[in-house]
Fold this protein.
Amino acid sequence: MTERKLPHLKTDLPGPKARQIMQLDEQIISPSYTRAYPLVASKGYGAMVEDVDGNVFLDFAAGIAVVATGHCHPQVVQAVQKQAAELIHMSGTDFYYTHMVEFAQKLAAVTPGEGPKRVFYTNSGTEAVEAAIKLARYATRRDKLVAFLGCFHGRTMGSLSLTASKSVQRKGFGPLLPGVVHLPYPYCYRCPYNLRPETCGTECATVLEREIFKKLADPEDIAAVFIEPIQGEGGYVPAPPEFLQELQRVCRKHGILLVADEVQSGMGRTGRWWACEHAGLEPDILCVAKGIASGMPLGAIVARAELMRWPPGAHASTFGGNPVCLAAAQATFALLEGGLIENARRVGAHIFARLADWPQRHRIVGDVRGRGLMVGIELVRDQNTKEPAPELREAVVARAFLRGLLILGAGESSVRLCPPLVVDLEQADFALDTLESCIAEVEQQL
Ligand SMILES: Cc1ncc(COP(=O)(O)O)c(C=O)c1O
């Protein structure tokens, strides 16, 4: 296979083989999946994906922010192959194995906060959130939870009760967990309180003490506040550091646990191990998944050791912390530490420098935001009214695909860029040139 660094399209899209697979998919696969465009993947390397017809794409979606080290990084592949030949499964629920301890030590060492920590392994992000909900309730013996509008925490019944990203994700599945209070997220571009960031006094963080504790839920009944430090599915919206710090202060004052859901923003994507580090946050529980094992199914929660005191049998998972996944996680960790986090910072800075004047240059670009390689570009019909433009966003995403660039939407009206952390400056420039010309074309048709 010739390895390319930039897209190379051989057929019309979708090509003939892709069409065949899509037809079969339509007959047999659950219709609940959302597919933005007809990519039928067959191979991947670095930031590139080849489809079944031999078309090569530049991947700025990374399997939804998962393949942190790129597709099939040789060191990850080697670690997986070696481990698969030695021990595929044992179940940490009932037996010991070295991989569980070794990776937990590494992970705990890079999570914010001094002092001893403990790790619980899962297979996915939603299971990490479920584990955090159970641990928070168990450790505090309180039952209520606070979450934020626009945040996505997963689709199983507990995490879904916190998720407030799109109503289709909840519709028809109730009743969900009782006792969950949702607050507006600090989405500064569309401030829920109609204030301006320079003068708002982080109104959105004071609402807990000012309103919620007095009128809705006694703080002594609240087990935890769940927050994405940078909202992912909700539109790549970073929470301002002052907001996160105020939230931490309020939580600590009332003995409420602060849970940072870094399933999407963690593992180096923002140019540091965790997005909450940018705000100096030390969450009581950190939820991790997606990028942790470069595509092998693994998740984890890391908590202060004194919180994780549940007894044997209280919580467990047959597959969670599978040795092959942990081998991939070890290789991923070494690559991130060995330069990829630094690369995310460097390439991310370059991307944001280029994007800075897009709102001036493009009348449908309302906002540009994010950190590192977690980049959100919000499209609007009108910069003054900020009317969301989901159909323009879909048009931009679809056009980018036809030019060989894989991107995804996020939130109502934003484009997200979340390339693998191996992406280089040439690929970033290509992606931005392509995206900008797609935006310009869509703009011209208005
Ligand atoms: C912040 C966040 N939490 C949790 C999840 C759920 O993860 P999973 O799809 O692995 O269950 C996601 C997935 O997009 C996410 O972005």
